[in-house]
């Protein structure tokens, strides 16, 4: 048997039938089958998200509702909608197939696929699945986080350097700070579960978190919340070995026509383990400085991203003076790139080198009895 993170932003498992042996891996609270009603931040996905050699799963992220009060699970298109290929009514399982040896009979159906936003059309990777009555905690509780507030946090100058948290299938509860907003990024996909055509989508104005421990493949679909106020701020959908990429939550809810289920304000903060909160939250950048940096980024981003080595261009805080904004350029490590200036229209540039952003296989852990592919 071997496992890998899928080309679809999820964890992929391939079973070897040569000897009829299945390796059982240690599982966390985010990966085991729960007794209904289940809490979110848990392993899950579309039960048809499999091929002859692979099965795929991600994270059932959070609870939302439409204007009629009907409740849905929010996650990614590539988790719930099989990268634009799902059929309405498809069963959404908990846990995901990868956590039950690709055997759907060992899962429980907690929702049915309802609606997605076609990839490349609305600047988000998002989908919803209608909750099966009694199967999901109707308060919106997320494992290790609790009940997030129903009101999203603003993505303005106060967001840069703000402490955030998420609970996901692969890495559980993790905490970090927002490194960049208004970031244009190229994200790689693959059409099928462990197979099919690979393609790239350009996303605009995304949220990036620079941390090697904040997420890994299989965490796709996790809701990112502010750690102090537990407000939704972004939807995790891709990453690299050093960086997490997430959609602005306001873009997600607008595209799907939903709002979050939960209290108007959270009753507690997220308790981040000391080892997971290595970076202290910052106060945010000057609004005037952020406006200058955002204008410079918008004017130059398209030209900069003509260089294949440039993975993203965004706005963040200066490493020397956190109150001042800079333009952050993400470069693919190991690739040659055109000369870069030290500033754009007087706004300093800072460089982050990383591997390609993808909705699959980022920051992938090696496991006993498994190999990466």
Brief characterization of the structure:
This protein has 373 residues and is mainly β. The chain has three helices and 21 strands. The strands form two sheets. Strands 11-10-14-15-16-13-12-18-19-21-20 form an eleven-stranded mixed beta sheet. The chain has a ten-stranded antiparallel beta sheet with strand order 1-2-4-3-7-8-9-6-5-17.
Helix and strand layout, with pairings?
Layout: E1 2-5, E2 11-14, E3 42-46, E4 55-60, E5 62-65, E6 71-75, H1 77-80, E7 91-94, E8 108-116, E9 127-131, E10 163-168, E11 172-177, E12 180-190, E13 198-210, E14 223-226, E15 232-239, E16 243-248, H2 249-256, E17 259-260, H3 287-304, E18 310-317, E19 325-332, E20 343-344, E21 347-354
Parallel strand pairs: 19-21
Antiparallel strand pairs: 1-2, 2-4, 3-4, 3-7, 5-6, 5-17, 6-9, 7-8, 8-9, 10-11, 10-14, 12-13, 12-18, 13-16, 14-15, 15-16, 18-19, 20-21
Sheet bearing the most strands, described? 11 strands, mixed
The level of helicity is under 10%
Terminus-to-terminus distance: 12 Å
Radius of gyration: 20 Å
Structure, explained:
The protein is mostly beta strands and 373 residues long. The protein has a domain at 2-131. It has 3 helices and 21 strands. The chain has helices at residues 77-80, 249-256, 287-304, and strands at 2-5, 11-14, 42-46, 55-60, 62-65, 71-75, 91-94, 108-116, 127-131, 163-168, 172-177, 180-190, 198-210, 223-226, 232-239, 243-248, 259-260, 310-317, 325-332, 343-344, 347-354. The strands form 2 sheets. Strands 11-10-14-15-16-13-12-18-19-21-20 form an 11-stranded mixed β-sheet. The chain has a 10-stranded antiparallel β-sheet with strand order 1-2-4-3-7-8-9-6-5-17. The longest helix is centred in the C-terminal third of the chain and has 18 residues, at 287-304. It starts with a strand and ends in a 19-residue tail after the last strand. Mean pLDDT is 88; it is low at 1-9, 15-24 and 366-373.
């Amino acid at each position: 048997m071997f496992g890998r993170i899928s080309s679809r932003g999820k964890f992929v498992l391939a079973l070897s039938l040569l000897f009829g042996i299945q390796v059982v891996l240690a599982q966390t609270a985010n990966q085991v089958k729960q007794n209904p009603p289940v809490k979110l931040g848990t392993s899950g996905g579309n039960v048809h998200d499999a091929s002859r050699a692979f099965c795929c799963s991600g994270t059932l992220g959070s609870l939302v509702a439409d204007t009629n009060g009907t409740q849905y699970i929010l996650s990614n298109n590539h988790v719930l909608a099989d990268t634009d290929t799902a059929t309405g009514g498809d069963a959404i399982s908990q846990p995901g197939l990868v956590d039950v040896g690709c055997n759907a009979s060992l899962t429980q159906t907690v929702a049915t696929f309802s609606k997605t936003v076609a990839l490349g059309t609305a600047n988000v990777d998002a989908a919803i699945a209608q909750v099966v009555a009694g199967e999901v905690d109707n308060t919106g509780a997320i494992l290790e986080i609790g009940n997030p507030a129903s009101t999203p946090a603003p993505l303005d100058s106060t967001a840069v350097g703000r402490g955030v948290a998420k609970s996901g299938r692969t890495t559980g509860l993790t905490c970090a700070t927002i490194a960049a907003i208004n970031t244009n990024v190229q994200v790689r996909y693959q059409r099928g579960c462990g197979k099919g055509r690979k393609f790239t989508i350009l996303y605009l104005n995304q949220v990036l978190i620079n941390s090697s421990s904040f997420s890994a493949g299989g965490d796709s679909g996790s809701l990112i919340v502010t750690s102090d106020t537990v407000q939704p701020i972004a939807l995790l959908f891709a990453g690299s070995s050093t960086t997490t990429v997430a959609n602005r939550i306001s873009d997600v809810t607008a595209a799907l026509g939903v709002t979050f289920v939960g209290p108007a304000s959270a009753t507690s903060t997220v308790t981040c383990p000391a080892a997971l909160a290595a970076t202290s939250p910052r106060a945010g950048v000057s609004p005037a400085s952020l406006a200058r940096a955002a204008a410079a980024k918008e004017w130059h981003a398209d030209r900069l991203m003509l260089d294949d080595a440039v993975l993203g261009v965004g706005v963040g805080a200066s490493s020397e003076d956190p109150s001042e904004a800079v333009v952050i350029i993400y470069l693919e490590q190991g690739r040659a790139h055109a000369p870069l200036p030290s500033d754009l229209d007087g706004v300093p540039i800072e460089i982050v080198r990383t591997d390609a952003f993808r909705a699959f296989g980022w920051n992938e852990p090696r496991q006993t009895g498994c190999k990466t592919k």
